[in-house]
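Anyone else keep sequences and structure tokens together like this?

Example one:
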Amino acid sequence: MPDNDTPRPWENTDSGVILHAVAPQDLGTAEITPKGRFDAGSYASFDLVYTAGPYGIDDSGSLRVCFRFASDQSNPQFEAPRGANFCTVEASNGAVLQLRWDPKGNVRPWDKTLWIKVVQGYLAEGDTITIRFGVTEDGGPGMRLQTFCEDTFEFRVLSDPIATFNFQPLPEQPMIEIGPGAPERFLAVLPTKRRPGETFSLKVKGEDKWGNPSDRCDQTLKVVAEGNIVGLPDTITLRPGVRAFEFDGLSVARAGRVSIDLQDESGGIVARSNPLMIEDTNLVHYWADLHGQSEETIGTGSAEQYFAFARDLAFVDACGHQGNDFQITDAFWGELNRITATYDVPGTFLALPGYEWSGNTALGGDRNVYFPNENRVIRRSSHALIEGGDAAGTDALTAGQLFDDLAEAGEWDVVMYAHCGGRYADIEVAHDGRFERSVEVHSSWGTFEWLLYDAFRLGYRVGVVSNSDGHKGRPGASYPGAGKFGAIGGLTCFEVENLTRENLLDCMRSRRHYGTTGGANGRMFIDLDAEFDAAATVYTDDPNVFEQAKGTQATAAKMGDIVHLPSGEMQLSGSVETTSPIERVEVFNGERLVHTSRPFSSPELGNRIRVLWEGAEYRGRFRQVIWDGTAKIMGNEVVDAQPVNFLNHDKTLEREGNALSWEALTTGNFGGVDIQLADASAGRLSINTPLIDFDIPIGDIGEDDLFFDETGRLPRFIRVFRLPDTLTCTSHRFSVAVDLSATGDNPIYVRLTQEDGTRAWTSPVYVYR
């Protein structure tokens, strides 16, 4: 990291306009105590002392103490001395100060702002303002720090000493280090699909409560394998000071399924790897998170740290950096290209060049742009946070113009995704299938199946991807932490022959991939085959888009293929291998559910009732749905209750007798509760939430979903169904005859749901008559 007082050429200002009203050295100074390293998500107390410079601070002048948009630390409060995050502010000379906390009180990425205004009196040189964060004298626990790591966490101080409303950052900023806590769980990661005899690695890490790879592991674990893995040690030792461990040179001679358990001294399983399928095949699996940002735009940590985390701590095979274009200066664009070239090592790890075209929603909305090589033209949507304007004349104001400009320049090797973040991609406003090959169905912002349905309705043939769009410096392993984020960042599994940029981009173009909601159990194996009883023509490129698209005569197809089937029937077969037990596999034709396959039968249903809430309020930023509510069981007894997808540790499930209460939110994804009852059918279940209330006989609950809907701009609903008391199946095969519509597209795809709440979606096979 560069010195704190050395600005990098790609850094933006804090005001959007550079007006050096006061020389930086005359703005004053700020010191924070204590300094050093603090655990992510822990409570701490700090004194920040600002000392006025030669100008002092005039009557109605101000200070701002700003924090990054991405930070999920708790907001300061000024009313409850015994509560968490209590803050006091005092001037040494008795000047009267006015305080205001505003989460959008400054220019991004330093949005979150404590605003301190001198309203009576003034400060002279040497006078101080002392800000105490997390005061504990009256019994409060302190200030809760952000839940993710950052080497240089700044309390960014800006001063307006002459009361001109021109806030300038101090040349030296107070900062601390936020590091990982002690490990609370261990993860073991294998590839998902390899060929017999190919070497691979076992990768292991411990994660703290908030999902940060911990450097405090100190344990020897026994290694127990399912299947004959050559080169596997009997034990592995995890030592302090290291955040991840890799064991290379492993191989399996014969086809089949293998996995690895890590056990403690008592034989208890502390980590179970994802399954690895060994197959004699042309295509194998590689995992990627191609969408996220670093601190140079709106994320955390440097771009170099970003790629290092993806490779070394998240264990993904490929990564892309997608900074907002209106924050990427020419200097930073050059730096990004240097970094991707450095980190890209074919066969080991791919760093894909690109950026996020971040146009306003009315102009088309966010798009991810990927290049096969460095030093390509960045066509920005605006220069909102960059000086100088469009001097090169390369800006593309609308998504439609972006597509046209790429076509005019002959840049047919570019691949794009439509995605939903703060702005959402409106693919009805603009879409070009020559470039835009997939839609992002899941990220840390939530789940967006509606974006896929938009594509079906409009006749687009797109694939399904999931990424993190993470801002916390953890690409490939992006957890929601605290605050308003309620989803884990997604991952995409690509089927390619070898790990090269060329193969990866070809895979993206052919849609031969599936997306998952990520997390510890988000690397499942999915294989999908379509068979036809009559001759078909199979395309990779869409013949509706490419006049010269070439088809192949065949009676079978894979995920992502486009199939012309003039007559005949379709049989869809698939296999799924998971770590968490399988709850269901659903087959869809477009938006229509046509088949549900469960790895259990109706007689196996037990006393377990699953209540799930799901949905989003709105397509844009403020999509959170609050599901805070209660459940009451009457005429029966609650034996146990466990949360499902309570991914944000600020949200809790409480049980008191036969009554449950919870705090929960969704952003298009789902959460809920498993209720274990003493009797399978007696009594009634009553649910109360801000959106939906209902009361039903428990005897009416079976394996099929009971839906309770709330009409809105997007689906919001609760569903209730029954499960076996214990699910154990992690291998499942299914086959179903798919009824095809006589006209138009039949987008046939599979959605997998695991017991732990993890989901996956395959890219569709598009079959048309």
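And example two:
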Amino acid sequence: MAQAQESAPANNGGIEDIVVTARRTAESMQRTPVSISAFSQQFLETQNVVQVDKIAQFTPNLTISQQPSSLTAASILIRGVGQTEPSAVAEPGVGMYLDGVYIARTGGAILDLVDLERIEVLRGPQGTLFGRNTIGGAVQLVSKKPSDDFGVEQKLGYGSFDSWYTKTTLNTGYIGDSPFKATISYQHREKDGWVDNKLSKHDPYGLNSDAVWVRLSGELSDSFKVDYSFDWNDRKGQPAYFQLVAASDNVLEYFGRSESLGGDPLIFSRERLREGLQEGFTDRKGNYRWDSRAKSQGHALTLEFDAGDALTLKSISSFRKFDQDTILGLSGNGNLLGVVYDYTSPTKTSVQRVTTYQGNNAPQKQKQYSQELQATGKIGDVNYVLGAYYFHEKASEYNNQFLTIVTPVAGLAYLGFEPADVAEIQALNPGLDLIGLNANPPGNFGGKADSYALFGQASWRPSSLDDKLELTAGLRYTWDNKTLFIDNDGNGVPDVNGKAKFTNLSWLASVNYNVTDNVMIYGRVSTGYKSGGFNPRTSVLNGFDPEKVISYEAGLKADWLDRRLRTNIALYYTDYKDKQINQFASGTGGATSIILNAGKASIQGVEFEMTAVPVDGLTLTGSLGYTDPKFKKFAFRDPVQDVVIDVADEARFSNVPKLNWNASIQYVFPAFDFGELSTQVNYSYRSKMYFFPLDRVNTFNKEVASPGQGTLSARIALSNVALGDRGSMEVSVWGENLANNDKLAYGIDFGGLGFGGAYFAEPRSFGVDVKFNY
């Protein structure tokens, strides 16, 4: 589906080729032996894609979920492989790249897509050419190249919930008599939250974002090219409204007494709410806030020297940094009051402010530098890619948490209270059944990472077979060095320091054959490696080893009926070893976890994409992804028996729906004298998705799961409206989630604290866009 909508009809009414860089050289997607979806700038605009998470609606077996408390963090998985932990030192399982530069943290993965030429989604391990942490696949963001001629594009839009934006793009053309040309884009976006916060004008889901993208290109000679790109994004806004959707009887009873004690009433609902009470939090500087803030910027310099068909040399140098200050907003309630333990009070209790869970994650910082050298070319019948890569990163994070632990008074004995103290509290407070303990557990950690790699890949296409057969093989050797520190802030637990080294050899072998000029079959075996490391969300040294996959894939890419029908299909089987399992927990230490190499698993599935142009102007597209993951082993340490047991028969893959599909119909009417009219209707569906692997650990896993859900959208546009001699205008009207489904977007089970919560996606919305080109 993505392929089709990305493609413009050819002059003969057929479907044009799509050029991708999945193998580090430009080539037709239909001749690339990899399962790929590609999205053009036109498609992204048509579907109102302003953040990368939305492309999951149109891509088989891709899941991208924005984390509840962050404006920039995402959980990204392809074919069931990825990462859901957003900490500053967590490694992703799907690599994201902007203009060939690796974006190392899922905490900065969501940024404004200002001026893209295309997005490529590569499914399956990409360990040979893209390196570590691409065991699920890779997402490539490619910014638009500067044009040869001067031009200005202005785009404006307004929609539901007072959302509006303006985007200005300037193409300088060749600057004077120099060989340089540039594109400069600025975008501003604002929207009010669609949940009305009765405690503040700062509504959940609100956003105020500024972004600048610059790309400068120069051909200094026929053989030497320079390309520089810069991106900057400053985002402020309120996190999603995290509703309480599940809770124990004690938690409901305890917090439900807030209103009788003079506090706000408890809000508990499994339905999507449009208004509520969202408390703020006092940040590390003493300011009471509701908003989260994030800044990111990146620089990339690419030098390319073309010595001829046999050799092209390329250097990619980059620097990126990211800074985030997040108000967690994970209570979904206002200023609650409760009876808590207070050793300064004569009764050992007092009424104080309480909360299910709140905090300030700040500062969270990350800086990275990378250098890549590539040599590509063709010698005889062999195309090759050789390269070397270096990556350095430094990251840190501080979490200031606030939570209330609810327990029966007698239960204080299990939380470290002496029996005499418990008896005294009971005697001084006759009839008191439930009591709260306010806690502020800190989380202060950081680390460094250095990674080195050498890689090579060669493809042999014998001319004696009319270039129909291609055999490809590749290798990549990686060295990783990692350090971690955990500052336990003098709470009686020693600080933690750790060092680790890892090495890996990834490889690839593939064969593809052109049965006809328009039909290619291929088979592919590839491996991937996700670096090991240390878990920062604990007070002790919790190290874990790398995880590895080997994937088998077979596919067919075909154009039929004089290129009026395109069908691409891929079947895959993945063998997963040493899977890193994040056993999320919550309790007196706040949000904590244990990471273990607990899993062996197999994943099998299918991906299908179709495009049809039955008549000129009419385009039908569809896609389907099916993922069937099964654990072969899941080692779990039983906290009661303190023994390791295998619970593979009850474990689930988190953040992995088994099925997603998409269907779209677009019609472009014959051109009128005043412009061109087009309409499009799109429907996407995703099956049920769990967010945690074990119900025995996460009590409310089923309650916070995201049920199967669909999204209906539509758009009508009038384009190519002439404005003077060289200007043009486009006006479009669109609608999203037209069925107004209550789409649960992400859930967290704080089972150790007695509750679970979730946030919902945006309800039905409408908007209008206007674009001018000069």
